[in-house]
Amino acid sequence: MPHARHLITTVALITFFTLLSAQTIWAKSTINTNWRGLAVKGYDVVAYFTLDKPVKGKSAFSHKWNDATWRFSSQEHLDLFKASPEKYAPQYGGY
After folding, report:
1. What are the C-alpha distances in Å from 4 to residues 1, 18, 42?
2. How many whole angstroms separate alpha carbon 70 and alpha carbon 57?
3. How far, in Å, are 3, 22, 26, 60 from residue 75 at the CA level?
């Protein structure tokens, strides 16, 4: 009987750690990104607030935040985002 208990414990531990590692591997980012890791498909999120329209960001004005790359159309917009990213980032990570 002790052998069976040891076998059950071993199988339970293997199952637990397998599920734990799978959850880590398949965990989604908190920000919705495209295959290149760009948030909101590379659009300038600050422009929605300041210009009231979508504006494509430039790679020269990029910033890494929350495991995503954010692009902006100007240094000013980049600086505004860096100062308060939660204000400009889409709610619920853009999902």
Report:
1. 5, 21, 56
2. 8
3. 67, 40, 35, 9
- How do residues 44-73 score in pLDDT, each as one tens digit? 999 999 999 999 999 999 999 999 999 999
**Which burial class, exposed, middle or buried, applies to 12 when counting CB atoms under 10 A from its CB (0-12, 13-18, 19+)?**
exposed
- Within 13 A of 23's CA, how many CA atoms are on the CB side? 6
pLDDT(23) > 80: no
pTM: 0.69
Per the listing, tokens 């000013």 go with: 76
Identify the domain containing residue 81 by its residue range.
2-94
Tokens 């637990």 -> residue = 16
Total domains, the chain: 1
